[in-house]
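All the exercises in this workshop are built on plain-text protein records. A learned vocabulary of local backbone shapes supplies the integers on the structure line. Once this layout is familiar, the rest of the handout is easier to follow. An example says more than a description, so a record of this kind follows:
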Amino acid sequence: MKQDLYNKFREDKKQGKKCFTVLIDPDKVNAQSLEQLVALSVNAKVDYFFVGGSLVISNNLDECIIQIKESCNIPVALFPGSPSQVSKYADALLYLSLISGRNAELLIGQHVVSAPFVKKSGLEIIPTGYMVIDGGAPTTVSYISNATPIPADKNDIAMCTAMAGEMLGKKLIYMDAGSGAKRPITEAMIERVATHIDSPLIIGGGIIDPEKAYRNCKAGADIIVVGNAIEKDTSLIKELADAVHSTPARV
């Protein structure tokens, strides 16, 4: 199995490099807006694109990824909300297992159904422990997952969940407050988790300004993911990327 993108995540973490990822929902872009988004991302030296969403009701996934790949060399990873969100044109698939909830369908059930299709896709498959954190408001991801998020102030629960995910073989840990979260994940929780795992730590949800992205990286996040805020204001891409890339390596 290919491990090109995963190895890059690992190498970036080893070197203390903090990375910025733009999350693209295929339902919320068209060819023109995507062209602008990619151009701004290239200019800002964005590290990765994650493509996917909780629903993806359009048939725009393949076209979206093809356009990105034809326009730049930024790696594209699928961030699927369902087993149907698989495209052979991406570089890798974050194979998400919702380890923060108790919904068996999102822990293993949907994976069983999608396994043959995913195997045939030829994609690099990256087992990812996905943790939904309470962001202070109902979000699409919490509704679709039908799972209770980890309370925002329960740092030890988050830590133990991440540790369990890592020991079960998840290669990435992804903590998400969800699109449109009123409260992003606290630096205290990020630091608590980061100091107890070796896997690259991805943080997303509710990050709307460069200062918060910078503080998250200082707390131990390896990859910052922003989607909703950029959908509202694409000029944030450069500011967010600069903030993430300016973070000194943790010692």
Remarks:
- The radius of gyration is 16 Å.
- The chain has a mean pLDDT of 93.
